[in-house]
Structure formats: structure tokens, C-alpha cells
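Researcher: I'd like a structural prediction for the single chain below. Treat it as a standalone chain; there are no partners to consider.
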Amino acid sequence: MHHLMNSVKNSAIVKNDGKNFLHFFLAFTVIFAALTLIIVQVMRSGVYKTTDQNLLNLGQNPDFLKSIVLHQQSNSNADSHPSSTGQYGPANTVLLYDEKGKLIIPTTTTVAGQNGNQILTQLEKSVRFNRSNIGTIQSVSVHNDYGANWNYRYLTMATVDTNDNIIGYVQVFANVDQLKESLSRNILIVLTTMAIFWVISILISLYLANWTLLPVMLAYEKQKEFVENASHELRTPLAILQNRLELLFQNPTATIIDESENISASLSEVRNMRLLTTNLLNLARRDSGLKIEPEETNATFFENIFESYQMLAQDADKTFTGTVKLDGNVNLDQSLVKQLMTILFDNAMKYSNEDGKIDILITKSGSYLNLFVSDNGEGISNEDKKRVFDRFYRVDKARTRQKGGLGLGLSLAKQIVVAYGGRIAIEDNPPKGTKFVIRLKIEMPTVHPARIFQKNKEISDKK
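Model: Treating it as a single chain, here is the predicted structure.
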């Protein structure tokens, strides 16, 4: 993986890594900013909800307001003032105004050289009567000579006589120092938490940017390897064709019979190139997704294929045995299954000697169709077993090229198996050789007796 990262770090694809990171980071930033604003707004609107409701209720209780005013008047003449520790004032305070909006109960009288009620004095200085605020709740912060400022929420109301004539105005105040301190502390906690997670989002953005880029890098590497291998496969036959044609020009008076060897070699390379391009086209189509088109199939379908394999094996002086054990019909894509079997049979033919033995067994277990293709060739090492399904990979390149192999067949076979939701595995075939084990998921619509196909035996019986 480290080699892969280094191999493409300078490619054009990696240039988008910064954009991916920026997109993720901006997305996280917007999310955290929106959450912070929503949480703070909810906290601000909720923290004073009870206090505001109490002010509204108090405004509907004139007897209680009158008692607060009398209490303030008695305290305003006291020869004392709040201690220097900045303690909170009373929970509720009231200011009265006449019908013109002028304060009608002064509270700043001086006794023995000292101010009266310090809280009322500062409220009178800080609050301005405004008729537009009648019926609404406002906030105000007043100066405190002995510590932190006092914070109040207040409601302005009009008072009327029995004829509904306005005879004055009342402002009811509620101290909210503790609530504001609690709100500030909670907001600080929210901001700190969001800032920490915002910093963490930078690391998450980097991880997601690399994580989303990794499949692209892997695909790019596979594409690069595919193009390199395809170019290599095409370069060899093209070089042979060029050399053969140059030899033909060196002897322009020669007949076709004289140059039959060069012509035959050139034709062989052309056929090889045609096979290569056909397989490359098939791979490109398979990469876009296989479409399974199942149809009802019985054992006769496999027996007919085995007859063709038997003739090919006899022509190569090899022995082929095909056995099908199938109860009834199955639904499968005959074209893809035939291609899969042909790839595995052709692979067994190439890697077995002249006295080679090739066996294909087809069975059914539950909803799976099992294919076993074995040979007695040289076998495949454990290291090669991990790579034989890679495109253009060949166990014995020199021998495979000589026999026309391109290293694409098993890759196609695996794609077919994967499209079926099955699996393909490679095992040793003692005493020597290789066995391919394939499981394809199918359906079993009907049931019929099992049939066994043994071509060699049938040929012997006919003789």
C-alpha cells in the first residue's frame, strides 16, 4: 500500500486531494457553526423564559406591586448602602412614572451624606422611559460601584383609572445576574466544545479525503497496469509482423511458397492480436457489469459441451472425462456458464502434458451449482495461486506465449463467478496437478433423475 501511495502521489488524480479535504473541512465548519448558533440561540431564549413569565404575572398583581413600592420607600431613607462585596440586590424592583412619563417617586434622597437605595439610584440613571416599549420585556445593565454590574429584565406597563384613562406607568424589574452568569458559562462551554470538535474535524477531513481518494488511486493503478500490459502484449506481435514484412521486401522476386514461413508466422501473430483485442473488449464490457440472463437448463446442455471437449482432447492426445450429476433443471445463463467452462478447460489443456488427464465434474448442492475442473499438469505454486486471476498474469510466460495464452482467461472467469454471487478457488490435485472449485448460486425449478456423462465409456461401447 505504501508503494501504491508513492507511485501515484505525483499523478493528476492526487491534485484533487486538496479539493476533497477543503470540501470536507468546509462542510464540517458549516455544520459546527450552524449547531453553535442554534444551541446558543435556544439557550438565550430559554434561560429568561421563566423570569419573563414571572414579570408578566407580576404586572397583573397591583397589590404586590404596591407592597414593593412601599418597601422601596422605607429602604430609600435607610442610613445604609450595599456592602462593597457587590452582593445582588432584591429580586424585584419597581419604578413609577406619571402620565407624562416623569418619575414620581424620587429615590435619590440623601441622608447623613449617604445615598439611599443604590440599586434604585442606578436604575433611575440607566433606564429611560419609552412609550414604544410598553408591554414588551427589555434588558438593562446598571452600574455597581462595589463589583460586577447588575443585570435586569424589566416590563413597562400603563396604569389606568376606572374610566380607562392612563394615570401613570409602572416598570417592574427582575434581577437576572445569576441567570446571565450561568448563560455566559454555558455559552463558553458550548463554544469551547465546538472549537475542539472543529479542530478534530480537520483530522477527520484529512482522513476522509485520503479514504475517498484511495479507491480512485487503486483504480488508477490497475488501469495503468492494464494499459502497460496490453501495450506489452501488442508490442510483441507488432514487432514480429514488422520483421517478417521487412524480410518480404528484402526478396521481392520470391514466390508465396518461398516466403510461406514468414507469411504463416505473420498470420499467426495477426490471429493472436485479434484474440487479444477481442478479450480486451470483453474485459471492458465485463467491467461495466455483467447482466445475468438465466434460462431453464438440464444435463443435456453440459453433455453437449463435453462432446466438444472430448474431441479437442483426443486431437491433443489427452484424456477428458466429463460427469454431470444434476437433479432436474436449473436456471442459469448458458452463454456465461459455457464461457466459464471453456476458459477452465482451455487452461487445463495448456498446462497439462501430452498424456494429460482433464476431469470436469458438475454437481448440485442446495441452491448452488458446483463445478470441479482438474488436471494432472505441473500444478500452481501457492504464490501463483494468489495472482492467477490478475489480468495478463501467467504462471509460465514463455510456455503460455508459445501456446497462445494471454493471461486474460482466468480474469474473465472470476468476473463471471462474482457476477453470479459465487466463489472460485484453486486447490492441488494429488498426486500432481491443479483443481479449480467453483460455486454458482442458481435456482432449481423442477426435479428429474440424475444423469451421468462419461464420454470415454460411450466411445468404447460404440466400438
